[in-house]
Amino acid sequence: MRKYVLNPETLIYEIKEVSLKHKILKSFLLFAGSVGLAFLYAWLFSSVLGYDLPKTALLKAENAKWSGKMDIMNTHLDRYEDALNAFQVRDDDVYRSIFGMDEISADVRNAGIGGVDRYAYLDGLQKDNLLKNTAIRLDHVARMAYVQDKSFDEVAVVAQNAGNMADCIPTISPVVPDPAKYRITSPFGYRMDPINGTVKMHTGVDFAMKVGNPVYATGDGVVEKVEFDFFGYGNMVTISHGFGYETKYAHLNTITVTEGMKIKRGDCIGEVGRSGRTTGSHLHYEVLYKGTRVNPYNYYDMSVPINEYLTMVHKREDESQAVLTRRNFSLRLRK
Asked: How far is CA 189 from CA 3, 62, 199, 285, 320, in A?
């Protein structure tokens, strides 16, 4: 590289060769000076004047924008959670209760998604963990919505089949409401046990009647159990009516139904007897709702006119006989 230098004596520019070492040293000094000035600028700008560097300010502005968006998102999540909680209360206390369905437990509704390390990748990104907490809330709301959606699907299926719900609820007496043929000897509630004399809860109603009086199903359903308990209920039939209802008929003399048989209200299921642990012939009748024994008195009406009750029973007998006749005729045709 050539360098022109003015000769003061001749006033003529003369060529002067610059060494490579000098050029390298000059370049280094220029670079070092530039770096030093940059650091000095940054120090003065941030430490002395208290300003953020342009890149830092840009990142802070971007972070503030996203934090604002997450705050808005959390406000929406608050409304969504309130709405879902209202749906849950209505679902458990109204819809599922009407159709005799069990409530969905809090453990199921509030179950988490994924393992404990699912959100580990968000740790430390923010001091207040806003991003992590928002992600957790989003998953929680999504889980609540999923469970509620499935619950409404279950209710919808039951509701589609609820047209016969009135026929399934046990709303008639299990015996002909003729005061000349029955006497209620033990209502629902605490009583003195007639055998050992201790005070115990009586979980049903006892209809004292002569052996052989017919016992009728109090609602449509399926025979769930036919069993015998020598030291307890004796010959007993349990009917599942759906919608959370079951009925039990104990101390029977004979049983005319089998397990799994579909029956209608007014079908004869057996006869009054004195089997099992009892001091006399009677029917012990129980109503269960969602597995809890309730007072049968709240379901039947013994003031129903006898002729209306017998009309219903005879209609069921005629229908059953007609079904049996058709079945026998079909069997003869096959032969």
From this structure: 120, 70, 10, 13, 36
pLDDT number for residue 255: 97
* Model pLDDT for residues 55-91, shown as the tens digit of each residue: 776 777 777 787 788 888 888 888 888 888 888 888 8
Average pLDDT over residues 239-265: 95
Find the angle CA(78)-CA(80)-CA(83) to the nearest 5 degrees.
110
The pLDDT of residue 196: 75
How is domain 168-334 classified at the architecture level of CATH? Distorted Sandwich (2.70)
Across all residues in the chain, what is the average pLDDT?
83
Q: Which one is predicted more confidently, 168 or 97?
A: 168
CB 275 within 8 A of CB 145: no
Domain-wise residue ranges, the chain? 2-47, 54-160, 168-334
Mean pLDDT over residues 188-217, rounded? Answer: 91
